[in-house]
Amino acid sequence: MEEQSPDGSGRMSSALAAFRRASEPERLARYLGYAIPFTIVGLFLFDKAIIRSILYIFCLVPIAVYVYQVRWTPVRASLYWWVIVLMCGWWLLSIAWSQNMSLESAYDAARLALIVALFFTGAIAVARQGYLRVESALTGMLTLALMLGLAILIWIAVTGDMFDTGYRLRGFGFADHPVQAGIMYGFAAVVALMRLFDAKGAAWRASYAAALIVCSVVVALTDSRGPMIGMIFAACVFAVARDRRLLLPIAGGFAALLLGAHTAGLIDLDNWVARGSSLRFEIWSHVLSRSAENPFLGLGAAAVLDALGHNSAHNIVLGTLFYQGLVGVGLLLILGGRAAYDAFATAHAGTVAPLVMLAFASPVLLVDNQSFIINLNRDWLILYLPILMLCRPSDVVR
């Protein structure tokens, strides 16, 4: 047993030795393999301030230590890493010519680029070494979504609360806004659908069926059309990729779900039509007219977007065009093209999850997104997570 010196130097040396052991590259990689995906699915449980604090302390700090030790070696061969780092670099550079820039907006823009670049550097490195435990995190996500969804429905039945002024459902954690809740629970419903067809045993099938039903009802109560469209599209892609004979039953099931929800008063399809584009076309027209001021370079990452009272372009391509110009759009298309190619390749090899997840994300990102470079939010769940799944070695993906 080590003798402790009066000044505590023995205790300090023991602490340093423990820190060195914990910060060994392989130990860090194994830790981050769980910490990264579980932090992202923690969006269901924690609000914005808490979940981002968890990200900074329990993910980004270990990632910085890990990246310092491995010296970029695991990510150098990844096209995803190069494109994302170039996007972040262009984002940082564009701060210099940002319109209506303030010190605060410049700081926020620089911080976002550094967070995303550091996150993907560590996450892709961990994924390429086969340590990223996305499936375990998705199981945890479905458990949370089922429990919280049931809690929401019970609370509604007892109190009639949980709705905003427009009588659209709000959830817990990051899902405290109807659109956020619709996207997050819609994504969970899609994962539950895939798990349902792969489940072994009646208990697992019942659990996934319950998660699918509860999450679908929550999405219906949010009155969010984008996530519902994403769910239907993802379900059809899943059916075609897995077994084309499933297409009609799954499509029919979602049609019955919509009609049943409409009949029960959970959703109002007439109101969906009456709401039209919800100012999307007007917002997109405004963003395009502003982007035309500097179409090649963009208006800069620190520029202030105000489109009819909205600070979001509600479209990932137009948002990128506004901030990063055609250069950023080109990089985004390279990233999306590579992700689509790899997703189809993995689906052909027998793993449809990344393709189906991206199928859900596609319509959502085209009607409700600010930019690819963004702090931890629901886009990390529906877009970043499937991209990281595609970065893993092919044997791990299968």
Description of the molecule:
The chain is mainly alpha-helical. It is built from 16 helices and no strands. The protein has helices spanning about 10-20, 25-40, 50-70, 80-95, 105-130, 135-160, 180-200, 200-220, 225-240, 245-265, 270-275, 280-290, 315-350, 355-365, 380-390, 395. The model has no long low-confidence stretch (mean pLDDT about 90).
Q: Which whole number gives the mean pLDDT?
A: 89
Succession of helices and strands: HHHHHHHHHHHHHHHH
Principal-axes geometry comes out as: globular
- Uncertain residue ranges: none
Strand content: under 5%
Structural class: mainly alpha
Q: Give me the Rg, rounded.
A: 22 Å
Helix content: over 70%
Descriptive labels:
single chain, 398 residues, mainly alpha
Topology:
Elements: H1 9-22, H2 25-41, H3 48-70, H4 79-94, H5 103-128, H6 134-159, H7 178-198, H8 202-222, H9 225-242, H10 247-263, H11 269-274, H12 280-291, H13 316-348, H14 353-367, H15 378-390, H16 394-397
Produce a short descriptive summary.
The chain has 398 residues and is mainly alpha-helical. The chain has helices spanning 9-22, 25-41, 48-70, 79-94, 103-128, 134-159, 178-198, 202-222, 225-242, 247-263, 269-274, 280-291, 316-348, 353-367, 378-390, 394-397.
